[in-house]
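Forwarding these from the shared drive since the link keeps breaking.
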Amino acid sequence: MAKILSGKEVSDALNANLIERSAALKEKGVTPTLAIVRVGENPSDLSYEKGATKRAEVVGITIKNFILNADCTKEELLAVIDQVNADDSIHGCLMFRPLPKHLRDAQNEICNRLDPKKDVDSMTHLSNAGIYEGRDDLGFPPCTAQACIEILDYYNYDYTAKRATVMGRSLVIGRPITLMLQHRNCTVTTVHTKTKDPMAYLPYSDLIICAAGALNCVTGDMVRPGQTIIDVSMNWNPEKITSKGKGGMQGDCKFDEVEPIVGEITPVPGGVGAVTTSVLMKHVIIAAERTL
């Protein structure tokens, strides 16, 4: 049986540390503050916003909401970002993406309008440059990618010389986590939809980051004892819904097959997702500390 890498345990430890740091900032006259910019009423955005607001209350971070209509213009959204940039009491900004279709062509311009010092979820090109160069003073990495690292660090994972396979090449997970693992001395292979026989790489890996977004794509015959698996994906599986109407979420791994074989694995739910909002709050705290 694998060791379960509990995201809740990691999140609880992060929160305890952030509560102390938030209190220390307030003693110095700084109230860590996050701006949330939302365009429209996308249900997934609303859900994440609700969770982020609750987590902010726990650790002592103030939230300022900037809500725009779904049909807002580029100029209206840019004006809000300018307002966030000009407000010295705001230390970080989360803007929900992707933006509505009529704003997609301007998304790079809109994202890069944000002051990189307030870019706590890797919206700007400068944050991406920081990931590429392995620097922690240029913006911040995406919260979900950083959550993977927080879990591995918490459980004292030894990265050096490990063979890692990253499934996926998105800007939110695949590409940044590939670079972040390389900076920690892993040898990394990235597999994606155009990789010939991508699952053939898995048995040779010490660490697998599952971010393919494909239900049950990792099965028991693809893994071996001793491996560590970080399952990032959140897939809908109607077969997992309980008689009480709960459940339904599953990662890329066919957990019942994979968990008895590998050495360590994150559950879904209760793994990476449980850490992501705490990482967002950590980035806000760091941004506030940098102002001092």
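-- next protein --
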Amino acid sequence: MTSGAEESGAVPPAPPTAAEAVFGDTLPKARRYAELLADDGVRRGLIGPREVPRLWERHLINCAVVEDLLPEGAEVVDIGSGAGLPGLVLALLRPDIRVTLLEPLLRRTVFLNEAVEALDLTNVVVRRGRAEEAHGELYTDFVTARAVAPLPRLAGWALPLLRKGGSLLALKGEQAEAELAAARDDVVKLRPSECDVIRVGRGKVDPATTVVRVTVTSEGGPPPSVGSRKGRGGKKKRGRKR
């Protein structure tokens, strides 16, 4: 059974202090995006109806505080963008950055394009495809991802897209330290990198957002086998479980 709010697509009001502190002048656009998620996002299966009551704390503000890690004018590729978390949130919050929302599923890219138009965002490009298909043609300062894949696989998709000094910012949960400890050796074999776990948004969102940051320290990308299992064979496309 769903609640009345879930049935109607009604959005809980933004927590005034936290939302205003994080979104500032962009709060009206954030509210509009929340409405889209609670309505079309639920009806199209992009988010679950149980997520509607916690859209602000768990999703919008949780993603928005990652902007603290992005310098002015940064280029960002959000892989497996889904409903636009975190890429679309960062784009509406930071008109100075340029964001590519990279998503393989048509129904999701349709929603993303509609959201970009509804929010009148001029700093966003929606691109249908997988990250590994963009290797060798798409380069960026930052790659963001949220709930896309385990870290070794995610790094295989993301690191070839980064310029030297660029960072993968992977939003993770409570087990981020353990996941990084288990994956660190595999990640740095893909491309020389520095890895750490940071928490952003303390005092704005509780709990703070946990990010695994992988910053590449070498020019160029890894060999074509980076996305394949155990590094064997040529390029190998892999479907993501959605």
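The two ends are 24 Å apart (CA to CA). Residues 104 and 189 are 27 Å apart (CA to CA).

- D.
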